[in-house]
Amino acid sequence: MPPNRPKGGQKSGSKTKSMNILDEISQNKILLSDGALGTFLHAKGMTPGECPELWNITHNTEVKSIAESYLQAGSDLITTNSFGGSIFKLSQYGLGNRLYELNKTAAEIYREAAGKNKHVAGSIGPTGKMLLMGDVTEAELYDTFREQALALEAGGADIIIIETMSAIDEAALAVRAARENTECTVIITMTFSKEPNGEYHTMMGVSPEEMVISMKEAGAHIVGSNCGNGIEDMVGIVKAIRAIDNKIPVMIQANAGIPEFIDGKTVFRESPEMMASFIPELIKAGANIIGGCCGTTPEHISAIGKVLGR
Length: 310
Description:
The protein is an alpha/beta fold. About 40% of the residues lie in helices and about 15% in strands.
């Protein structure tokens, strides 16, 4: 277990806001996160093969405008452009030596947009390496997650969100690295698929129940799910989490439906109104933070926000 630390986001003299997200949740407030980022980047001109994280340097105005779009839609929490900011992902673009710079800048952009009254979640995604296959060591994974988390905190993130995970060992190392080296609140979300029998598992066979047990042990403050499902299936995932733990805060970021490949394009069919219609059921199941993932837009977030009384 990680050592005892102050609640995330309360470091004296830091750039982060004074109100801790866990305090807000304890006051029974349902928080609104943001939506898709990659879709937005491509719409602003990013081409296939470009490094999204490099845009924090080369197109910082465009990146900031994405953050501002979600803030205007009502988001309480915005997520940095750093999903692929590990040494392994950045090295594919020859940018491994710029890990700290790219992640810190990502958080700085979003903190500037958010000011002191909104939360900035520093995004950490999977590395693409598998301990099971022996192509990486635990120490190597821990080190890259530590460096990424430190850079995001230095840039102004008050939350570290480890997202779209499927392997329990990699996710646990990321949570530990963030907890042991920063004072940020740590969120972990995994991506589940629905089995024919109605149960949910990640591509590595992890169930929501197993996620809760392992991620709490690693030190996560908040657990949940993102990507892979439309919002209706997320209700079942929240119920599975609540069946084993009715106290830990839960975050859900659903796709705008299951992606379909039509005429060479990826299409998401869930409209803002369709997604918003499931919010009462999602809240009843036990979700505390709700937002979007692939295919969602500021319009989706705004529609969800209206249900939440924004």
